[in-house]
Amino acid sequence: MYPDHTHSEPAQRAVEVHHPTPYPPAVPVSAPVVPVQPGAVPAVASIVLPDGRVVTGYAIDPARPEPAATKPAVSRTAVNVALGGVGFLAVCGGLILLTSFIAALTAFITQLITLAAVIFGGWIAVQVFSASSHRAAGTTVNIRKAVIKRNKFYG
Question: Taking the CB of residue 69, how many other CB atoms lie within 10 A of it?
Answer without folding.
Answer: 6
